[in-house]
Amino acid sequence: RRAAKFYPQKSAAAEFPFTGRIVCEKCGHHYRRKHTAIGTRYEKIVWICSTFNTSGKSVCAAQQIPEPILQAKTAEVLGLSAFDESVFAAQISDIRVPAHNTLVFVFRDGRRVEADWQNPSRRESWTKEMKQAARERQLKILEERRRLCEQ
Which three-class secondary structure state does DSSP give residue 99? Predict the structure, then answer.
C-alpha cells in the first residue's frame, strides 16, 4: 500500500497518445514507442511494430515511423498547424499501417483518411554548422595522416 501511495503506476497510454492506437496490418499487432541510438547524435524516437521489434524482419516486414513524422501527419489529417493530443484522442480511434510510407487514419465517426509520408534523407537533415564541423574533422584527420607519412 505504501509503494502504491508513493510510486503510483503510470499507464503508457496516459503518457504517450499513440500507445495502443497504431496497428500493423501485416501481422495485426500494435506499434510501440522505441527510443533508438540513445546517447549518440542519431538518437530519435520511433514507433515500431512489436512483432518486427521482437521477432525480426523475416516475421513482419513493417517499417518504423519516426515520432515527429507521425505527429506532423496526424496534425495534417486533422487540419491543425501542430499536433494536439486532446483533438487526436477525441477524433481518431486508430491508425492503420497497411504498407511502407502509408498511414490510414480511422476516425471515430467511421471515416478513413489515407496519408503518405517520406522519411527525409540524412543529406537533407544536415545543417550548415554540421557540414562545417564534418569538414573540419576530415581536415584534421588528413593533416594527421600527412604528418605520420612524413615521419
Answer: strand
Q: How far is it, in rounded angstroms, from Cα 51 to Cα 28? A: 9
Query: Letter for the amino acid at 53?
Result: N
pTM of the model: 0.72
Nine-digit cell at 145? 595522416
- The answer for 135, left when phi > 0, alpha when psi is -120 to 50, beta otherwise, is alpha
Q: What digits encode the pLDDT tens for the residues 35-71?
A: 988 888 788 899 999 999 999 999 999 999 999 999 9
pLDDT bracket for residue 89 (50, 70, 90): very high
Long-range contacts of 98-102 (CB under 8 A, 24+ apart): 98/25, 99/25, 100/63, 101/63
Closest CA to 85 of 21, 9, 18: 18
Q: Give which of 88, 108, 106 is closest to 98, Cα–Cα.
A: 106
